[in-house]
Amino acid sequence: LTLEEGDEGFATPAQASERLDRVLGRVDAALEDARDFRRALAALGDENDGEDAGAGLDAIRAEALALKDAWAAVSGPAATIQALDKTRWTAFDPAHARDKLREADDALRKAPAKARQYAVHADCLRFVEARERAAGGWVGALKAIDLSQSHERRLAA
Predict the structure, then answer these.
(1) Residue 47: how many CA atoms within 13 Å on its side-chain side?
(2) Which of 11, 32, 118, 151 could form a disulfide with 16 if both were Cys (CB 3.0 to 4.6 A apart)?
């Protein structure tokens, strides 16, 4: 699996941020409409009926902002994985990859508690851990094998 733009079922942090910005824009517009509705009712002398207009929108807005923060927390680790995915096999350095993945793992574990409650955080953490195992396991072992020049050329192609 890779974290590429447009993969079905996956969103990159940039895509998620863009979508959440659109949601927040709609919620903000709805909140403004609710305020206008309350003002109109107040002007008509009916101040109680407008209280429910926009109820729950503030909670939706707060949740969307928290989710946006969660996506921001995984953006660095996701970028690390994308960079490693684009590394050519012949240029792959298992020790460097392990260091980068360890940094990504630390960043995810130190994310704010609110960000850690979302599935995107747990999914990214599992993804980084799987890559750490691969970099320390078969990928590192395969890279350490002394291959002939022809084998390396075939693997690099």
Answers:
(1) 0
(2) 11
H-helix segments, 86-148 = 94-109, 113-116, 119-136, 138-144
Q: pTM value?
A: 0.70
Query: Can you tell me the distance from the alpha carbon of 103 to that of 148, in angstroms, rounded to the nearest whole number?
Result: 33
C-alpha distance from residue 20 to each of 16, 29, 55 (Å):
6, 14, 20
Dist CA 96 CA 42 (whole Å): 64
62 neighbors 20 (Cβ within 8 angstroms)? no
Q: Would you put residue 7 in left (φ > 0), alpha (ψ -120 to 50) or beta?
A: beta
Query: What tokens appear for 51 in the block?
Result: 């209280």
> Would you give the end-to-end CA distance of the chain in angstroms?
20
